[in-house]
Amino acid sequence: MTTTLFLHSRITDPYPMYHRRLAESPVYWDADAQLWAIYSYRYCQSVLANPAALIPTLPDAGPSVGDRILPNNLLAIRNNLVRLSNPPDHDIARQITAGLFRQMSPVPIGPLVDRLLAAIPRGEPFDWVSSVCRKLPVSYILSSFGFSSEDEDFILARMPLLLSIMQPAIPDGQHTAVHQSCIEVYARMEQHWAGRTTFHNGMLAYTISNLLGLLIQSYDAGRGILTNALRRLIHEGGSGHPMIGDPSFFSKFVTEVLRYDPPVHHTRRVAARDFDLDSRLIKEGQPLLIVVAAANRDKHTFSAPAAFDIHRSNNHDLLTFGYGPHTCLAATFSIRMTADTLSHLMRSFKDIRVEESQLEFEPLINVRLLRRMMITLS
Ligand code: HEM
């Protein structure tokens, strides 16, 4: 049995294991899982910056709809995604996705949060994850591109199916529904952009595919930071926190949550050719697991790494958003969205309680995401 890969739903606290590996074997060959697991800050950073360490290809997603790979097919969308591409395709996909972020208009988060909370009775427990966190990042992105609230509802309803675009396999029995959702959502987006922008050949397909990618990543990682940050803020005193009035408080706070308790624990690479790491030979074709959550607790980079400390001067050096050519394009976006949400909640409610006894984690390996977080607002 390997302790390198585990379901977060089964582990109360992965950090003691990360701590042991950091001390004893920062570059660890797991013979059961047949992969290298990298724990230290220095070696995680080195692999993420290494052009010989590539993003692994996802297995074939099964038959597409129709005989040809049309732009709205799952496979075509997947092939365009910056998050899954390697050089030389990665460059163009990254430029187009960075351009998407530049096109987003600022949207105040307060009214979006209030709309999601409108039907929630005050003083009664409700699930923060399903009521707000699974919807807010997607709504925020779509609103900032000027999509109508009808489009937003249509796309949000299909998000659980669209997640398959970035997953290794489509769940049994969902093939038709997943492909259908890709086609329908693609068509909505195409219609939204018709007449507004002139795209060169192929650019529209890249743009829509990567907007879909952003929605998928915000649906998962975005909800993770919204839950972890609120939970930690309540733990640290909520609106009674001594720094709450400081204009930079919320972004500093969210940054430290992302270092200390990140939603994404690791990412993967595969060696495109042999290379050395910590005097070990990584052979061509071997998979690598880059455990950024462990690197964030490396004492050689962060002083007293197990302490939650928003005043540490280098918290922004966290590896939670990756490093190198694939660094997350949404780091600033994610911190701002979360900081603004926390600030809005603190202004709107006198008392926020989190039911710590009822927390449940998703049965997933690479991300530590709360499946349910019961809270009460009054
Ligand atoms: C707290 C939330 C988030 C975390 C922890 C996170 C983490 C990461 C990490 C670790 C990577 C690099 C993966 C690798 O190198 O293998 C990445 C890439 C990426 N992230 Fe995020 N992310 C977050 C939120 C988001 C959101 C909300 C979006 C979209 C709106 C997003 C969009 C992207 C994109 C497009 C890439 C690929 C960049 C590239 O490959 O060039 N991320 N993210």
Description of the molecule:
It is globular and about 55 Å long. Helices cover 44% and strands 10% of the residues. The protein has one domain: Cytochrome p450 (Orthogonal Bundle). It has 13 helices and twelve strands. The protein is an alpha+beta fold and 378 residues long. A hairpin with an 8-residue loop joins strand 10 and strand 11. The strands form four sheets. The chain has a five-stranded mixed β-sheet, with helices on one face. A three-stranded antiparallel β-sheet has the order 4-12-9. Helix 11 (249-260) crosses helix 13 (331-348). It has helices spanning 15-24, 41-49, 74-80, 89-103, 109-117, 128-133, 136-144, 149-162, 175-193, 203-235, 249-260, 292-295, 331-348, and strands spanning 27-30, 35-38, 53-54, 126-127, 267-271, 275-277, 280-282, 287-290, 352-354, 360-361, 370-372, 374-377. The structure holds protoporphyrin IX containing FE. Protoporphyrin IX containing FE is lined by residues 48, 82-83, 94, 97, 137, 141, 213-214, 217-218, 221-222, 225, 258, 262-264, 267, 320-322, 326, 328-330, 333-334.
Low-confidence runs: none
- Describe the strand arrangement of the main beta sheet, using strand numbers: 1-2-8-5-3
Radius of gyration: 21 Å
Mean pLDDT over the residues = 93
Could you name the key traits of this structure?
13 helices; binds protoporphyrin IX containing FE; 12 strands; globular; five-stranded mixed β-sheet
Question: Care to give the gist of this entry?
Answer:
The protein has 378 residues and is of the alpha+beta class. The chain has helices spanning 15-24, 41-49, 74-80, 89-103, 109-117, 128-133, 136-144, 149-162, 175-193, 203-235, 249-260, 292-295, 331-348, and strands at residues 27-30, 35-38, 53-54, 126-127, 267-271, 275-277, 280-282, 287-290, 352-354, 360-361, 370-372, 374-377. The longest helix has 33 residues, at 203-235.
